[in-house]
Amino acid sequence: MSEEPILIWGAGAIGGILGAYWARSGRPVLMVDIVAEHARACSTDGLQIEGPVESFRQVVPCVAPAEVEGRYRRIVLAVKAQATEAAVGQLLPHLADDGFVLSAQNGLNERRIAALAGAERTMGAFVNFGADWQAPGRILFGNRGAVVVGEIDGSLRSRTRDMHALLRLFEPEAVLTDNIWGYLWGKLAYGAMLFATALTPDSMAANFADPARVPLFIALGREVMAVARAEGIQPLGFNGFDPAAYMPGAGEAAARDSVAALAEFNSKTAKTHSGIWRDLAVRKRPTEVDPQIGIIAEIAEGHGIAVPVLARLVALIHDIEDGRRPQSAETFALLAEALPTGAAG
To answer: Residue 126: which of 283, 266, 239, 207 has the closest Cα?
Structure first.
């Protein structure tokens, strides 16, 4: 009996790499992408994975959303967070009754997918490898990073173990967890810091290594962790990010050590800048700031928690998106205006 195909909705940096690795291993894969030239390149000449981790070219069938036929038990959603609702609306007719959608995205998109597709048909994943879409048919694989999969209700099922086995074809150290929300909230804190690095033209590593900017990264981490704790989440660490260092009552030294570890982790990648920076500086398109960072402020408000630095970060990113400010050290410095008195280090 032949293996059922995996449908990957979104063939960009994350979805494209997963598709290339799975197709190379002999798994049947169909990718879906809205960029016709990219879809054509993946299907004909092949998708070129390039960079220091591994370089290879792999043909992966890829079609436009309107060309998808049939129903699938395994759908991996890998679109930008702000495209989640529209993408789920398009893919739902192709999701089998006993199938599921695995979110391979940044943010808390599992909440929205569960509302649209049903909690039982939603699975979570956390990815922290470095990758960038370069051009039609080309994706940079800059560095390996944490990859985690888990059910949103914390259970461990045969389907979760199956997806874990598939992810290990790409990342041998992939983790199977009963606390996917812990990883996702940890990534939210790290993600907030990455958004801050995108306020400047400097690399991620240079930002984290700048002593003048460290208090802002610590403030962002602390605000996200305070909201996570109010939500009853036990955040988990990865790749230098230590959630305990940003919890209320944690010492300053531990937080500085964590930021230094993030500088070290990001100094070893061919992906020198975040995807957020790339959206602003190269692709000139809106970032995921509202569904990734703005949502934290909304949740915080429900708990009566003030998150002034996160709110200021969202406003500054929108300023850059709309052309009101440049990506500069001066724009980053404006974050400090939101710091509580005495927290400027």
So the answer is: 239
